[in-house]
TrEMBL record, chain B:
Cited InterPro entries: AA_ABC_transptr_permease_3TM (IPR010065), ArtM/GltK/GlnP/TcyL/YhdX-like (IPR043429), MetI-like (IPR000515), MetI-like_sf (IPR035906)
UniProt KW keywords: Cell membrane, Membrane, Transmembrane, Transmembrane helix, Transport
Main location (coarse class): membrane
Family per record: Belongs to the binding-protein-dependent transport system permease family. HisMQ subfamily.
Protein name: General L-amino acid transport system permease protein
Amino acid sequence: MKIQTILAAGAMTVAAVAAQNAQAGAVLDGIKAKGFVQCGVNTGLPGFSAANAEGKWEGIDVDVCRATAAALLGDANAVQYTPLTAAQRFTALQSGEIDILSRNTTATTTRDAKLGLTFVGINYYDGQGFLIPKALGVSSATELDGATVCVEPGTTTELNLADYFRAKGMSFEPVVIENINEATAAFFSGRCDVYTTDASGLASIRTQMAENPADYVILPEIISKEPLGPVVAQGDEQWSDIVRWAFAAMVEAEEYGVTMENVDDMKANSTNPGIQRLLGVSPGMGEALGLDEAWAYNIIKQVGNYGESYEKNVTAKLGLERGLNALWTDGGLQYAWPVR
Amino acid sequence: MSENAKLPPLPTGTFSERAVAWSKKNLFDGWFNTLLTLGSIAFLVWLIPPIVEWAIINATLAPSIEACAEATGACWGFVNANLRLILFGTYPFEEQWRPLLAMILLMGIICGSLGAVKYPSLRKAIIPMWVIGVPIIAILMWGGVFGLTYVQNSYWGGLPLTLILSSIGVIFAFPFGLLLALGRQSHMPAIKTVSVVYIEVIRGVPLITVLFMASVMFPLFLPDGVTIDKLLRAQIGIILFTAAYLAEVFRGGLQAVPRGQFEAGDSLALSYWQSMRLIILPQALRLVIPPTVNSFISMFKDTTLVVIIGLFDFLGTVKLALRSDPAWTKYYVEGYAFAAAIFFLICFSMAKYSAYLEKELRKGEQR
């Protein structure tokens, strides 16, 4: 896929130029005029964004778009989805084909600064790890010298792998396989000693694809930081604020214990000034963002708080615990900027 | 049949005698053929029972993950449970009768057009069928009028998308390819150069690159706020690509028509287009039916490449279904086998039709 890499690099350069031409407020005005948010999602990653048996998109990345639509338009279903491949995603955002990219995209310096993008939050903290058969008798990634490693090409995964082994002064033999089904099949049939991808992926592969999941372990080393989050194009600050705070409201709601179920009760009865501010009982927040005062209420009522979204998608589909994505009060990294 | 005289004398004897004689002649004729026959039988005995056991005897059709986990054979339940997702992709669930109807209509028009060889009365109806049919299909798929809700084409998918991409591809690539082939044969240097350059450039790059350019690079050259539809871009890419290949196929046909035929046209004072239409092309195109159908079959299969630009053709929706729930992911063999079966069915029909077409059009040469 060399050609793709070169083309993508070219596309990014042009995209960076194009971004500077965007008019202030254009995205927000466009969304209000058409009445829905155009949301770029993954073409199929269970738990993040995948079509269910009825062809409807579901996942925590999808929920970010739904929350934004609920905040801005009052209806979480006012979203149209554009499934995108990794190579297409930034072009789609820059050319205005989509309003928001919520496609398990890692926030990095070049993407944020050079491509004219704004990362508005981190809805999933991931990191690359190693899956090995127990029979290999290895308990740490530092013992993997000389191992054959199954890996998918063209991603940061492949680069991180090479970086890690070089930094540790170890050698490895990559077995590069394009398709995830074939790559995992190769691993489980013993063609390679190690399978590497993001930890969220490893866990689901282990539980769903292995004949006997207990025969496989995920090594404790996480060799990269993969903060995944929604992205918008630079140039419409009000729009990026709305996405940023729509996501923050989901996390804040979890911190306050406001759920889809008790939100009406909380709105009517809560005396906590923080909750009153969040739900618009004491007004001001909506006005500050240029939204209806019920913006956060709509999100929680229609989409749920961050914990509910995580539970429903990531835990239910992939069997993953909260880990790094727990609230900061529970030892995780999810820490919402205060809505006040 | 006028060839009766050539037939061997009718076999005599009982059925079993004839069977033994037949197999002696055809299967056990010498030690080498005997070895081949025995080897083939052993291979089939080794190959077929496990497949039958897996695909039929131990398989389950029940659309539940639990039933599949218990079955030792194939899990057709995966296809069963996700059939609508596989057939129609992410098209809104309640509206899926629309792509279904559009697909039936499209197949009807295609069959009607192909049947015109057998039923000449259909010939006059071909153009009206397409002119009326295609807008109806477009209305059904897009909606937005007559009380149908508007459906963006990023939601189109599955078999209707594959059929639309390939049939629209054929309809536009065919005349375009023909013009390119004629252009390449032209005596006018400008037209000839343009055609040659176009054909060679397009043939020199893989389809995946054309699609990738159309999807990733092209939008960046458009002015701000102008976006050309992703599906349209892919469709145009497929048409441009196929036309270049067809042009070379047609050129082969044109070159196979004897020089005298061109001269005959000239001596009758026919114009260029008249002699092409009446004399050259009918002969040239008939000669190249097999490679033309070959091109169509490979284009039909190439439409699966649109998956790299985020469109879900029929193969793409199978992948989509595999990822709809991680519990289904391990049944990818069943999913791909189902896709392969449908693709084979369609491609095989095309091949059969082309054989039939060749026979029909050769009637003039038979006595």
